[in-house]
Amino acid sequence: MLVLLAISGSTLSATRAAEPLELRWVYLQQNLQVAENMPKIEAVLRTAAKSGYNGVVLADYKLNILDRVPDHYFKNAARFRELCRELKLEVIPTIAGFGYSSGILAHDPNLAEGLPARDVPFVVKAGRVV
């Protein structure tokens, strides 16, 4: 009985593993601002497409500060986008990431949450908080 259960369980899990996943994404953490990165990026995308991937998660910090990047960043980003279209790869950009959130705070550091302070004297001496 145990052998039969073990065989049927392994057959069932093998069947499930053979079903293709609907979303097959590759994670790409690259800097599109650097033109020298583009050949490496293109190679990864072509390999992913040939391997059956259908999306690319682009992790580039500059996506959080697009108002501060040089014009050539957008040329490289357009080249990236066109290659993804050619290869039928959906682009999933990572923005507003968790953690330090420096991309958000770069625009307004006052968005950083501070700890509440009650009944704490703030003393200034010679123009400095002590």
Could you describe the 3D structure shown?
This protein starts with a helix and ends with a strand. It has a domain at 21-106: Transcription Regulator spoIIAA (2-Layer Sandwich), CATH 3.30.750. With 130 residues, it is of the alpha/beta class. Helix 2 packs parallel to helix 3. It has a three-stranded parallel β-sheet, with helices on one face. The protein has helices spanning 2-18, 38-50, 71-86, 102-105, and strands at 25-29, 55-59, 90-93, 124-125, 128-129.
At a glance:
With 130 residues, the chain is α/β, with parallel strands linked by helices. It has helices at residues 2-18, 38-50, 71-86, 102-105; strands at residues 25-29, 55-59, 90-93, 124-125, 128-129.
| SSE succession | HEHEHEHEE
Count of DSSP H/I helices: 4
Amount of beta strand: 5-15%
CATH topology of the domain at 21-106: Transcription Regulator spoIIAA
Top CATH class of the domain at 21-106: Alpha Beta
Assembly state = single chain
Strand order of the largest sheet: 1-2-3
Radius of gyration: 24 Å
Beginning-to-end CA distance, first to last residue: 75 Å
Architecture blueprint of SSEs:
Elements: H1 2-18, E1 25-29, H2 38-50, E2 55-59, H3 71-86, E3 90-93, H4 102-105, E4 124-125, E5 128-129
Parallel strand pairs: 1-2, 2-3
Antiparallel strand pairs: 4-5
